[in-house]
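pinging the channel bc i need a second pair of eyes. not urgent but kinda urgent?? the chain im working w is below, pasted from the shared doc
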Amino acid sequence: MTDADTYKRAAAARAVELVSDGMRLGLGTGSTARPFVELLGERVRAGLNVVGVPTSEATREIALRVGVPLTTLDETPELDLTVDGADEIGPDLALIKGGGGALLREKIVAAASRRMVVIADQTKWVETLGRFPLPIEVNPFGLAATRQAIARVIADCGLAGPMTVRSGAGGHPFVTDGGHWIVDAALGRIPDPKMLADRLLAVPGVVEHGLFVGLASMAILAGPGGVRTVERS
């Protein structure tokens, strides 16, 4: 296990302590959310009564394997807590998510939760978002026109950087669980995440983007110095 894996598991372990009997949980996707689901399974096998909504098919498979009972947002439209990872965590807990391709479901689940806690190793904490390319989930129809509109929005926000369609297996475009494609925009710096977030959602063809603004209430960060928590102001 690498140091990063050790830190991710330490953050996940702290997050599991926030779970109490009877909770309805959003289960995140990715390399940091995975140990949370696995540790949650240990508590379920010890008698904890919870139910979870997975944010991806990959997380669904892990949860079923470790014995976490599952539901859907149609059956359980209000959740108590979502625990998920992030590709970057910036000021006031604005996030970039979507490196694993599950950003649409992750955002739907987070928005349905009373509280979202993001867990990560400390390298994900940044002073300004943007070093990690911003995932933008798009409908494949009319992709060239959508990309041009996205480029105009980025320029209007005073930003610049290359955009690439994410590749999947066999060199084909990566396809999300919702059947969409992802355009990754390498912008370098995003000083005003909310402005860019609002402008991108106004582009026809953009299904969702990886800027999570105002959703996370706490970050749990782990590193060589231990585990610390950061609350949104």
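so The chain has six helices and 13 strands. and The first strand starts at residue 24 and ends at 27. — does that match what u expected or am i reading it wrong
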